[in-house]
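Risk register update: the risk of archive-format incompatibility is retired. Evidence:
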Amino acid sequence: METIWVMKINTNTWNIIRYTIYTPFYDLIGRVLTKSRRKSIEMLNIQPGDKVLIVGAGTGLDLEIIHHKCEITATDITPAMIVALKRKSKRLKRDVNAMVMDGQLLKFEDDSFDCVILHLILAVIPDPVACYKEAERVLKPGGHMAIFDKLLQKHQKPSLLRRMLNPITNLLFSNICRSFSSIYKHSNMKVKSDITSFWGLFRIIILKK
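Archived output:
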């Protein structure tokens, strides 16, 4: 019963509603994770001129960290978030191609980007496998993907408390019982690095296609 309920509340429609509400104060909370975001992006090793895609970009907190002269495309399913991101990109004087788009169905050609950033989306999006496979599809051969999210640690099974809290956290912000191994088994990419972050509650994973 719990699984069915979680699936019903975790929809694109609900994500748009709740993140529209969160947009005005999203940066205030999101900056708590700036150190981890920075570490993830540093490990991605973006090069000048690279084409970089940020899926689930939110208000654009990653734009404050990416200082490379690269071509950035940012997507998010919540229109209010994209509006805020565009304002931020103007303030930062960054040329960003920002658009409303479902991370489970990216409207880009295969092998379009040198780097793909998935920060705090795999634990939020209704179908993380679809999102991951789409990110892999649009990544160029030899390209790199950075994942930063609240995923279970290697070989970790969700505790009873975690499973009890998950319907509430999933309703308010994200799923706290998602396993990367269940997502990665659908992948042909190689894990280059996998480290814990933010007191062991998050993981930073770098992959190469």
